[in-house]
Design brief:
The complex is a heterodimer of chains A (165) and B (466). Chain A contains 1 helix and 11 strands; from the N terminus they run H-E-E-E-E-E-E-E-E-E-E-E. Chain A has 165 residues and is α+β, with helices and mostly antiparallel strands. In chain A, a hairpin with a 5-residue loop joins strand 10 and strand 11. Chain A is globular. Helix content of chain B is 80%, strand content 0%. In chain B, helix 10 runs antiparallel to helix 14, helix 12 packs across helix 16 and helix 16 packs antiparallel against helix 17. With 466 residues, chain B is mainly α. Chain B contains 18 helices and no strands. The relative contact order of chain B is 0.05. The chains are: A alpha+beta (165), B mainly alpha (466).
Chain lengths: 165, 466
């Protein structure tokens, strides 16, 4: 293979990597389970790359007392699997696990990372705290209480957008 | 002139100066025309276009950066105007086009610098494309993965082009990935160290670029600090500042020793200056900080308020660096390097072990002892004595080697330490007017004496090396 072909292959691989990112996103959205999560507080925030809405989901703060699953101890930085069940308007945390649990057909699991540990609650990051929007649209989404999130089999989450309930 | 010697690569400023000197030597009858021609033939005549080449490089790199920033902002701000998939196609096309144009200019049309700048722009666009795609499709989960992907992309281009700029960009992106993993996600492992030792530093030496070598060793220092930081983010609690200080001085000792070692290897001699500067900064600044009783008091209080009783990563990293210094000491003996080399490395070992021991005392002495003023003063006296002896040794060694850098660094540190001690000791004891008059007079006398001594030292070096 001559040098030019190697160089073109490197460029092609970079384009493929970008396409792969989009493919991953679409596979999660198309094949994953969609749940509706409630937002505790959220606010639009400007950013140099564009406007985005910062979202704090109800399940970001987990009161460990009422939850099933593993009892801990939990450590900052550990992975956490949260089993969700649907409850009227939205999905709520039901139990928490350190390893990925087997779930029922009416359940969903979301994977997060423990940000801080408190005696009564855990703060968890699921990687779905930002939603990029067209310029000037962030403020309109400020009052949306319910948001759709797609979850793949491993519990990886992707935010789809707000829904009316 | 013997034709078997090819012209040696050298900086244009050095060659210009050398040729000027050679002309003087011929005029003064020190050498003949034949010797002059022989010396001149060893180096490529600096061309007036050399500096223009450098300007072109700077301009094109700046242009690449501005273009990259502009493209990022353009795509980021045109949300509604461009559909998401179209945005991806557009970004990918622009990136590929820039890459291809860069290749064509650099390798096919002879516009080396412009081509290189476009290739750099391509790598910047790849990074921005990753984050624009993540943004457009609302992918935020574990964002350091984006930095890792970008680093891998840049590395592939760097390995192909062997461009120092692209390698430097890879190095910086890789550090950014490693730091975001550790800082935001508390993921830490040997990957950064392995890549630094296995890819970054060897590539820098392979390209024979001293700035890349400096960046590579800075990355090595970053690995050490990152490990100490992870100690505090994991279950162990907050890492006290004294741990960072002890690690920094050990790193400095290791770097300085590595410089002394390489100074005796002809093919690595050119990196000596970088290692000496790095090493001296990392040895002298921690020592300077530890020479103040007030700061020692603060370090002690901070250490006693920390829940951390043992910082495993910092501890093992410090031990590893001390062992590396000792290994270099043994190797310098085995390879029968000159005595000055062994003395330099030996001094590094003694200083870093001493600072590490003081760090351990500050960390683990009983609370009652640590909080007392006499403890801080005792440690400060020990450090000041060590600092004074070390500075005297550096000045002596600098004189012996004809190395101005060493002499000047030691003198600057000495003056800074003397001023600090003067302020610490007499600020509360004297009326302000007397304080400043006394201080000014002392500085004046000290300055004259130091300059006299420095001139004496540097006036008759055995061998002018700097």
């Amino acid at each position: 293979m001559n040098r030019k072909k190697i160089y073109y292959a490197i460029v092609a691989l970079q384009v493929l990597a970008l396409a792969g990112m989009i493919g991953f996103k679409y596979s999660t959205v198309l094949t994953g389970k969609t749940v509706v999560l409630r937002v505790n507080s959220h606010y639009p925030r400007h950013h140099v790359r564009g406007e985005r809405v910062r979202i704090n989901f109800e399940i970001d703060f987990l009161e460990t007392k009422g939850l099933g699953g593993d009892e801990g101890p939990f450590k900052k930085g550990d992975d956490l699997y949260v089993v969700l069940v649907e409850d009227n308007t939205h999905w709520k945390a039901n139990s928490i696990f350190k390893e990925k649990p087997e779930i029922g057909i009416d359940e969903a699991v979301i994977k997060g990372k423990i940000l801080s540990v408190n005696p009564s609650y855990l703060k968890v990051d699921y990687g779905v705290d930002s939603f990029y929007v067209p310029e000037g649209k962030g403020r309109k989404l400020m009052y949306k209480q319910f948001w759709e999130v797609a979850l793949d089999r491993s519990g990886h989450a992707l935010i789809k957008g707000p829904v009316d309930r | 002139m013997d034709a078997k010697f090819a012209p040696r690569p050298a900086r244009a400023s050095f060659v210009r100066r050398l040729f000027q000197e050679v002309d003087y030597w011929v005029q003064e009858g020190l050498i003949g025309q034949e010797a002059s021609a022989a010396i001149r033939s060893r180096y490529r005549e600096p061309s007036p276009v050399d500096w223009r080449g450098r300007v072109v490089t700077v301009l094109t790199i700046m242009a690449a950066s501005f273009l990259g920033l502009g493209v990022i902002l353009f795509f980021a701000s045109n949300w509604e105007a461009i559909p998401r998939l179209a945005k991806f196609i557009l970004v990918s096309s622009v990136m590929s086009g820039v890459y291809i144009a860069g290749y064509s200019l650099r390798y096919e049309r002879g516009y080396e610098r412009l081509g290189e700048a476009l290739i750099i722009l391509g790598t910047i666009l790849f990074g921005s494309a990753i984050f624009l795609v993540a943004q457009a499709f609302n992918m935020r989960e574990h964002f350091p993965n984006g930095l890792l992907l970008w680093s891998l992309g840049i590395l592939s281009v760097a390995l192909f082009t062997r461009s120092p700029f692209v390698f430097a960009l890879f190095n910086l992106a890789f550090i950014a990935w490693s730091w975001t993993e550790t800082y935001y996600f508390h993921n830490w492992g040997p990957t950064t160290l392995l890549v630094t030792l296995g890819v970054i530093i060897p590539a820098a030496y392979k390209l024979e670029n001293r700035y890349l070598v400096a960046l590579g060793f800075a990355t090595l220092g970053f690995c050490a600090i990152e490990g100490a930081f992870f100690d505090s983010t994991s279950i162990y609690g907050h890492t006290p500042d004294i741990v960072y200080i002890a690690m920094a001085s050990t790193f400095g000792g290791m770097i300085y020793a590595a410089g002394a070692f390489q100074d005796r290897l002809p093919e690595y001699k050119k990196y000596r200056y970088i290692f000496q500067v790095f090493g001296l900064v990392f040895i002298l600044v921690p020592l300077f900080l530890l020479s103040s009783p007030g700061l020692i008091h603060d370090f002690s209080r901070e250490a006693s308020s920390s829940s951390l009783r043992f910082a495993p990563i910092s501890f093992f990293e410090t031990i590893a660096m001390v062992l590396i210094i000792l290994a270099m000491l043994v190797l310098s003996r085995v390879k029968k390097f000159d005595r000055a080399c062994t003395e330099e490395i030996g001094a590094c070992a003694v200083v870093v072990i001493l600072i590490a021991l003081l760090g351990i005392i500050i960390l683990y002495a009983g609370k009652g002892i640590r909080h007392s003023d006499s403890f801080a003063i005792l440690i400060a006296i020990i450090v000041n004595v060590v600092l004074l002896v070390l500075l005297a040794a550096i000045i002596f060694h600098g004189y012996r080697q004809g190395n101005k850098l060493l002499v000047n660094a030691a003198l600057i540190t000495f003056v800074a330490a003397a001023i600090t001690r003067y302020f610490e000791t007499f600020w509360d004891m004297m009326p302000r007017s007397v304080f400043f008059i006394g201080g000014g007079a002392l500085l004046l006398v000290g300055g004259v004496l130091l300059e006299k001594q420095r001139r004496k030292l540097m006036g008759s070096p055995k061998e002018a090396r700097t």
